[in-house]
Amino acid sequence: METLTQECRKDGSMEAGKERLTGKDIQEKQRMENGEGSGEWENAEEWEGPGEWENAEEGDKTGEEPEWQEAGFPGRRKQKKREYSLTGSLMAKIVAFFLLGASCVLGMGAAIICVYMEMEGIYSEKLSTVLMDMVYPECINTAYEVEGLLEEGYIQEAEEKFRERNLGMELIYKEEDGSENVVWSTWEGGTTNLTADIWLTYDKQEKTVRINGHTLVDGRLYLARMYVDSGFPWDDGLKRTADEVFFLNEHKYAITGVAVAGSFLSLVCFLFLICGAGHRNGRKGIVPGALTTIHLDVLTVLFAGGGAVFADFVLRLSSFASARVVFALFVLAGTALVIWATFYCMDFAVRVKMGKCWRYSLAYIIFRWLWRGMRFLCRGLVSLIMGLPLVVTTLNVYFGICILELAGVLKYLNHSYGFWLWALEKLILLPVVLYIAQVFRKLLQASQALAEGQGNYQVDTSGMIGAFREHGENLNSLALGISKAVEERTKSERMKTELISNVSHDLKTPLTSIINYADLIWDEVNGGGKTAEKMPEDCRGDQTGQLPGEDGKVREYAEVLLRQSRRLKKLMEDLVEASKATTGNLDVNLEPCEVGVLLSQAVGEYQQKMEEKELELIARQPEEPVKILADGRRLWRVFENLLNNICKYARESSRVYLSVEAYEKEARIIFRNMSKYVLDISGEELEERFVRGDKSRHMEGNGLGLSIAKSLVELQSGRMEIIIDGDLFKVVLTFPRYSPF
To answer: What average pLDDT does the structure give for the chain?
Structure first.
């Protein structure tokens, strides 16, 4: 291994002391030299990762990826270098901090100077005006000092105040006519536009003061006219002030540019540091800082408190310093505060990038616990109130409002704003009353819809609370239950009807065979003389069963078999017809029909049977023809069922009334008869299948006639109503009247 490593170092494939081969790499190298190939590396796109160095010596575990040279290992591609980002460079951030500080010093200093120049009017006023405003404080201070010396009589000392200075003074006494008399002067003459007039009041001291033959009068106003030499030959405070003004006026735009450039560079550096916060070359994702573990609000208080203490210290220190020192202090302190705030903003940016901002603050934790506590208390209070009966809760709320209102009335009864307090209370109660009214309206609409049979109606409970919401949800559950029950019942009825129809079809074939063989047996026992067709159609059951001839018993059995088989056939046909009529599987061809003609034909068919039952038929119909939209075959079937029902159950020796009544939009066909049995059943029950007024069932009939008639009438867009009044049995058929227009 050492030999191979040395050879690699001699060939220049690796730099000594920096990059070394592992045992696995050496074995791969030997396999390539022996011609065994290295196909598993030839197509590799890049070397996977650093740091997995097996059997590496000291210095190899640096975490850096080695750069494999193609010359050392043929077929192996050079490792891809790590991506470099300027925002992740530590050196770039250090330079940015340095530029931020320097630009803040320049920009802030220049900005303060710009503000100072704007306040002094350098940008807007004339230079002479600005210069005079700048030197005016020194002029007035000198005038007041001279006033004090003159009041004491120190004329010589007063003149010394103007020696070797760019300032002169004239003490002027104004006459009543406005003329000026110069009492005393230190101005040597010359032209200047820098003058200032200051009024002085002479206050007499122990001795009288005379200046140039003029006695200063106690309490009199004197005008001190100050002259500033615009050439500034002497080096004094006025000259230094003037030089400062001249410099600022000459470089005012350059200073403005420095302020703008410094501010812009500071902003760029600040944004760069904010963008680079949390990024570090060689590390993936956002790298938290040392301050990230501190809660955000705690860190905010620390930074804000530190900045406030530092600013207060600078302000206190500036009160004892000169103007230039104050300027320097403000610039340096402002720069320090900007850098201090930049550190805080960088940490805040790291928190935002990591998603650890508000949720990782101490205030959030405290508010969350407080919110949980309040929510727990509110839920407990609400559950306690909801646990009480609704009437008790309402009374408690009502009496609570009354007590509050009474307390307000008693306290503010004699005050003018008692009315406004009462009005405010009513204004607060108004939305509550409106809300309750709206909720009651929704609940009332829901109950009305359910009463009308709208099973799919749903109450909007989104804005309801408390018992109102519970009541609305109960109504919704009730509506869903009703819809489900109706659907299941409809499905059950349909399945029963289909079952009856299917069973009827299945029984039809064997029943036909039974009827055929019954006919053959009947022919056989009657010697072929009396055929089955000559038997009574209704196969009445009141026969004795003893027929003349031999083998009477066999003939009796044959008669019963034939009669019951035909009855069963009639039942099967009615079942099939009832199931088809109920499910709507019958073809209905609606066309104009004259009711009177169809009813007369039906009456003619049953005239003989009614005479046998001693039934007197009385038919009444309008003189003009009454036309309805109906299917003639289906309507004939309805009349047949109703007349057959009358023949079976009408009282003998009674009257049967058939009438047709014509109205504007509909026509009514009415059947009336007296029942031979006591009708202790409602008309709705008689309309059901397999229900008969004859409870003993000793009469023939299967209880399907009225049900079939009702279904056929409804298929023709009509309606059928059964009315029972004592022994009076009444059926009313109503159809829409036909109109060609």
So the answer is: 76
CA dist., res. 123 & res. 136, Å (int) = 19
The answer to whether residues 227 and 187 touch, using CB atoms and an 8 Å cutoff, is yes
298 Cβ neighbours under 8 A, 6+ residues apart: 362
Three-state SS for 523-583 is HHHCCCCCCHHHCCCCCCCCCCCCCCCCCHHHHHHHHHHHHHHHHHHHHHHHHHHHHHHHH
CB 228 within 8 Å of CB 162: no
Give the residue ranges of DSSP H helices in 388-453.
390-411, 418-451
Q: Residues of 328-346 as b/e, b for ≥16 C-beta within 10 angstroms?
A: ebbbbbbbbbbeeebebeb
End-to-end CA distance of the chain: 115
Torsion sign (Cα): 97, 103, 106, 112: negative
Instruction: Copy the structure tokens of residue 299.
Output: 């860190």
Tokens of 498: 């289909």
**Six-digit token pair at 447?**
């109950």
Residue with tokens 């009282």: 651
Tokens of 78: 């050079």
**474-520 per-position pLDDT tens digit:** 888 777 777 777 777 777 777 776 776 677 667 777 777 887 877 88
Q: At what angle do helices 466-525 and 552-583 cross, to 10 degrees?
A: 150
User: Is the separation of the CB atoms in 55 and 97 below 8 Å?
Assistant: no
Query: What's phi and psi for 655, nearest 5 deg?
Result: -105, 145
Q: How many Å apart are CA 588 and CA 583, to the nearest integer?
A: 13
Are the C-beta atoms of residues 469 and 461 closer than 8 Å to each other?
yes
Say which amino acid occupies 333.
Answer: A
pLDDT digits (tens, 9 = 90+) for 93-141: 899 999 999 999 999 999 999 998 888 888 888 888 888 888 899 999 9
Distance of CA 540 to the CA centre of its chain: 78
Distance of alpha carbon 659 from alpha carbon 177, whole angstroms: 137
CA distance 365 to 359: 7
Contact 459, 446 (CB under 8 A): yes
Q: Are 448 and 441 in contact (CB under 8 A)?
A: no
For residues 655-671, one letter each, b for 16 or more C-beta atoms within 10 angstroms of the residue's C-beta and e for the rest, the string is ebebebebeeeebbbbb
Using one digit for the tens of pLDDT, what is the confidence trace for 317-329? Answer: 888 888 888 889 8
Percent of the chain with pLDDT over 70: 75
- CA dist 620 and 623 (Å) reads 9
The type of residue at 130 is V
- The rounded distance, in Å, linking the Cα atoms of 695 and 680 is 10
Q: Is the dihedral of CA 338, 339, 344, 349 positive or negative?
A: positive
Tokens of 710: 């009702």
Half-sphere exposure of 64 (CA within 13 A, CB side): 10
pTM, entire model: 0.43
The answer to whether 221 and 180 are in contact (CB under 8 A) is no
Q: How does strand 616-620 pair with strand 655-662?
A: parallel
Residue whose entry in the numeric block shows the structure tokens 């210290």? 313
Q: Residues 199, 221: contact at Cβ < 8 Å?
A: yes
Instruction: Sort residue 291 into left (φ over 0), alpha (ψ -120 to 50) or beta.
Output: alpha
Name residues whose C-beta falls within 8 Å of residue 487's C-beta, 6 or more positions apart in sequence.
none
Residues 467, 472, 474, 475, Cα dihedral to 10°: 140
Would the pLDDT of 25 be above 60? no
What residue ranges in 48-186 does DSSP mark as E strands?
167-174, 180-185
Q: Do residues 716 and 667 lie in contact, with contact meaning Cβ atoms separated by under 8 Å?
A: no
Longest CA–CA span in the chain (Å) reads 191
